[in-house]
Write a structure and sequence with these properties.
By secondary structure, this protein is mainly alpha-helical. It has one domain.
């Protein structure tokens, strides 16, 4: 995997996919490398402590709704517990303010290619865009993001696809 950034925004599907290692026998062969990449990414974020989230806890709440705050049984659940236990220790600049505006955010970039961006994922983009360093967003398996990578690059945002082969194939399959 390419070198992971010191600071990043993490889409919820990254720790969710990392959790799939708990039932390794149930992981399809085409997802094995993806699960390992997500484990590596989650462990990297915990080790560096440089997660960027919103100050209103919208990202935290999404994590909490999809992961176990007890920190087990999976790596993604340990990530959730770490976020819970440490989010107030993050540097102030890594807890950015985003302002809801209908189904979007004032900090969500304006670009024609992003007009159909998923409402539920807009918070990740808004957070990255509102942060002064414009940290990359880690993405695992949501293939729609593959179609938005160029418009996001156009507005100065990067997405690190942890499972590029998988996500590209899924996107191509959906576009048929």
């Amino acid at each position: 995997m390419s070198k992971l950034p010191k600071r990043c925004v993490v889409d919820t599907n990254v720790p969710i996919i990392a959790n799939r290692a708990v039932d390794a026998a149930g992981v399809p062969e085409e997802l094995i490398d993806c699960v390992l990449a997500c484990i590596e990414a989650v462990e990297h974020v915990v080790k560096t402590g440089r997660l960027v989230i919103d100050s209103g806890d919208e990202i935290f709440d999404e994590y909490r709704n999809n992961l176990d705050m007890k920190g087990q049984p999976g790596v993604g659940d340990r990530f959730m517990k770490w976020v819970h236990d440490n989010r107030w220790k993050f540097p102030g600049k890594d807890r950015v303010t985003i302002t809801a505006s209908g189904c979007s955010y004032n900090e969500f970039p304006s670009h024609d290619g992003l007009s159909n961006f998923d409402d539920s994922d807009r918070k990740f983009v808004a957070v990255a865009n509102a942060h002064p360093a414009k940290p990359p967003i880690l993405e695992a398996t949501d293939s729609k993001w593959w179609g938005w990578k160029e418009p996001l690059t156009d507005v100065g945002l990067d997405v690190i696809f942890l499972c590029p082969d998988y996500i590209e194939a899924k996107y191509a399959q959906k576009m048929k």
